[in-house]
Design brief:
Structural class: alpha+beta
Radius of gyration: 51 Å
Shape: elongated
Pfam family, one: Integrin_beta
Helix content: 10-25%
Distance between the termini: 53 Å
Membrane topology: Single-pass type I membrane protein
Keywords: Calcium, Cell adhesion, Cell membrane, Disulfide bond, EGF-like domain, Glycoprotein, Integrin, Magnesium, Membrane, Metal-binding, Repeat, Signal, Transmembrane, Transmembrane helix
Family: Belongs to the integrin beta chain family.
Subcellular location: Cell membrane
Strand order of the largest sheet: 4-6-22-21-16-19
Length: 748
């Protein structure tokens, strides 16, 4: 379990801070948040909001049942892109051609969890094209009209190189039929041109020929057209573009091209006020007998309005304009996606080349757009284009330099930050200028699976005042409390507050919580690992003693402001180790028998000794000389001085046997005596050789051995120190002799 400030990252704080009252609220906070449905999960004083935490924290708190729904993607329609050749015998209808895959998906979105799917686009060969030629027929375009009269058959012949299914249409425009755009005198209305020119009456927009595959019909009808005239230089082309986009003029669900040909600028929204027209353009079709009839009633459309309508109807625009107005229309192109600008010669003689070049430019680029997304939903794109070129951000929406037959892909991520008002929404994703689109159904995971098994008006929720779901009570309207035990009107009354005061004190919930319906609900802290709990929120797990800047020394858990130490540790901060292995001296005794082991460290009781295991004694003369007198008097002193010896040397326990560690000392009569000194269980002991002058040894076969810690070699049978001596007997009385005359001792 994680306690105290040891969690630097505080990963669950976002979930805790949300104060989610139900599982559904919890899973909308963030992807990492889960809800514990264990009935006995909460401790005294904990609010049900504690059930909402990050998954790791809930697991660390021993929660068994965690509600953590995940999002997923289902592909509903997934037809393969079409591999079609222009010279293929069996021609496909436009609706049978697929350039984008998949076509429909369903995304089940969990808040904060992005879902990513791949979208494939392949530019089909021999894809049908509809082209509508919209021409300015004001007086300055009289030379251009002559060159356009044969455009139909010439253009159809050239377009055969691109597609075998090509249709063409024609429309014209001049200006709004009100002052000050035209002269409204009867004579000027009949013939707006001056001099000997016979011009037709001014008009706003006329659909001359709906889309057809008959190039000769195009030529015939265009040949019958006449130039008109107006007063000001900008023309009413925007009115015409709007009607072409929204009216039924024969558009199919194929590539749609609009060629806008002019040698002048354009009026846009707001300019209608000059003629007393203030109503905004309604973006609807107003054609009667192929003539726009509401130019005097509605203002010009705005650029943004045109962008929307052109996009909605998948129309790609080619602005064929003279050199003089190139800068103006290039700026306009930057505002209208999937549009191109070509330089029209003074008499439109290069219009076919301009159209083909512009079409190739437009069709070599695919740009994805999506319909409006619900509030709280975001979409991001990553493109994987030709030759492995990738793009992100706005660049992730498009791929360029795509040839016929090339295949590119897009990684599209959809993420929701909250549940919208409707649990299901649909968005459309499509390449600009193409009629095909991908339908994406968004289902939002706003409730937990466990809520389906909720028990309405459960008796466990204070006699039916709430629904028991996901391990907690979801209170009915007007009810509150962990078990919905009281109404909101009963909150903060004195009787209820009295139940939240410990030992009749003045502090409500120990100032660490709120009294709700007579029960303390403890505060949550910035660090989710730090918890208040207890009936009166009197306990916490972060206000315990510290050692080494660690709560409970890092060797225990803080429970109700007291450290509960791990095994082998004690102390208020669990900083005292009970392990004595660090106190063992070289002789195997704890603190060399001259101290006590406290918290894993030796405290030397004999002031002469020091060091980590009380083995260092700078002033000691040596163990053997130090205890010589007491060993001598206790073992060999005689009757006269026995009482004084017992008084001064009573600390020493005497054992007469062969010693383990050898001490050799000379008495007053020049006799040698031998003993071993040791401290066992805090009691000094001397192991003494019983007879004076006797050499202590143990015969093992032909080797004599005794233990000790030195490596001193003596000659002629005399060996001193501590260690193990291996003695080899040199026999002088023959092979059967058992007593050595000479001894060689080796110590190590």
């Amino acid at each position: 379990m994680l306690f105290g400030g040891s969690w630097a990252q505080q990963e669950g704080s976002e979930c805790i801070k949300a104060n989610a009252q139900s599982c559904g609220e919890c899973i909308q906070v963030a992807e990492k948040c889960g809800w514990c449905t264990d009935e006995n999960f909460l401790r005294d004083g904990e609010s049900k909001t504690v059930r909402c935490d990050d998954i790791g924290s809930l697991s660390a708190k021993k929660c068994v049942k965690i509600e953590n729904p995940r999002g997923n993607i289902n592909i509903n329609i997934n037809k393969d892109v079409t591999n079609r050749k222009k010279d293929q015998a069996d021609k496909l209808k436009p609706e049978q051609i697929t350039q984008i895959q998949p076509q429909k998906l369903t995304l089940n979105l969990r808040s904060g969890e992005p879902l990513t799917f791949n979208l494939k686009f392949k530019r089909a060969e021999d894809y049908p094209i509809d082209l509508y030629y919209l021409m300015d027929l004001s007086f300055s375009m009289k030379d251009d009209l002559e060159n356009v009269k044969n455009l139909g058959t010439h253009l159809m012949r050239e377009m055969q190189e691109i597609t075998s299914d090509f249709r063409i249409g024609f429309g014209s425009f001049v200006e709004k039929t009100v002052m000050p755009y035209i002269s409204t005198t009867p004579a000027r209305l009949a013939n707006p041109c001056i001099g000997n020119y016979n011009c037709t009456s001014p008009f706003s927009y006329k659909n001359v020929l709906s889309l057809t595959n008959d190039g000769n019909q195009f030529n015939n009808l265009v040949s019958q057209q006449q130039i008109s005239g107006n007063l000001d230089s900008p023309e009413g082309g925007f009115d015409a573009i709007m009607q072409v986009a929204v009216c039924e003029i024969g558009w199919r669900n194929v590539t749609r091209l609009l060629v806008f040909s002019t040698d002048a600028g354009f009026h846009f929204a707001g300019d209608g006020k000059l003629g007393g027209i203030v109503l905004p353009n309604d973006g609807k079709c107003h054609l009667e007998n192929n003539m726009y009839t509401m130019s005097h009633y509605y203002d010009y459309p705005s650029i943004a309005h045109l962008v929307q309508k052109l996009s909605d109807h998948n129309i790609q625009t080619i602005f064929a304009v003279t050199e003089e107005f190139q800068p103006v229309y290039k700026e306009l192109k930057n505002l209208i996606p999937k549009s191109a600008v070509g330089t029209l010669s003074s008499n439109s003689s290069n219009v076919i080349k301009l159209i083909i070049d512009s079409y190739n430019s437009l069709s070599s680029e695919v740009i994805l757009e999506n319909s409006r997304v619900p509030e709280g939903v975001t979409i991001s794109y990553k493109s994987v284009c030709k030759n492995g070129v990738t793009g992100t951000g706005e660049g992730g929406r498009k791929c360029s330099n795509i040839s016929i037959g090339d295949e590119v892909s897009f990684q599209i991520s959809v993420e929701s930050t909250k549940c919208p008002s409707h649990n299901s929404e649909t968005i459309k994703i499509k390449p600009l200028g193409f009629t095909e689109e991908v339908e994406v159904v968004l289902n939002f995971i706003c409730e937990c699976e466990c809520s389906k098994g909720g028990v309405p008006n459960s008796k466990d929720c204070h006699n039916g005042n709430g629904t028991l779901e996901c391990g907690a009570c979801k209170c009915n309207a007007g009810r509150i409390g962990g078990k919905c035990e009281c109404s909101k009107d009963e909150l903060r009354t004195e009787d209820l507050d009295a139940n939240c005061r410990r030992d009749n004190g003045t502090d409500i919930c120990s100032n660490n919580g709120e009294c709700v319906c007579g029960t303390c609900e403890c505060k949550t802290r910035e660090n989710p690992a730090e918890i208040y709990n207890g009936k009166y929120c009197e306990c916490d797990n972060f206000n315990c003693d510290r050692s080494g800047n660690k709560l409970c020394g890092g060797h225990g858990q803080c429970e109700c402001r007291m450290c509960v130490c791990e095994a082998n540790y004690t102390g208020s901060a669990c900083d005292c180790s009970l392990d004595t292995s660090t106190c063992l001296a070289k002789n195997g005794q704890i603190c060399n028998g001259r101290g006590t082991c406290e918290c894993g460290e030796c405290k030397c009781t004999n002031p002469k000794f020091q060091g980590s295991t009380c083995e260092i004694c700078p002033t000691c003369p040596g163990v053997c000389p130090e205890h010589k007198d007491c060993v001598q008097c206790r073992a060999f002193g005689g009757e006269g001085d026995k009482l004084a010896c017992e008084q001064s040397c009573g600390y020493l326990t005497l054992v007469k046997s062969f010693p383990l560690t050898h001490c050799k000392e000379r008495d007053a009569n020049d006799c040698w005596f031998y003993y071993t000194f040791a401290v066992r269980n805090d009691t000094p002991e001397a192991y003494v050789v019983e007879e004076l002058g006797m050499w202590p040894s143990v015969v093992i076969g032909r080797l004599w051995a005794w233990p000790g810690p030195s490596a001193e070699i003596g000659r002629k049978g005399v060996a001193r120190g501590h260690g193990v001596a291996l003695s080899h007997a040199l026999k002088t009385n023959g092979p059967r002799s058992t007593q050595p005359r000479h001894v060689i001792s080796i110590y190590f």
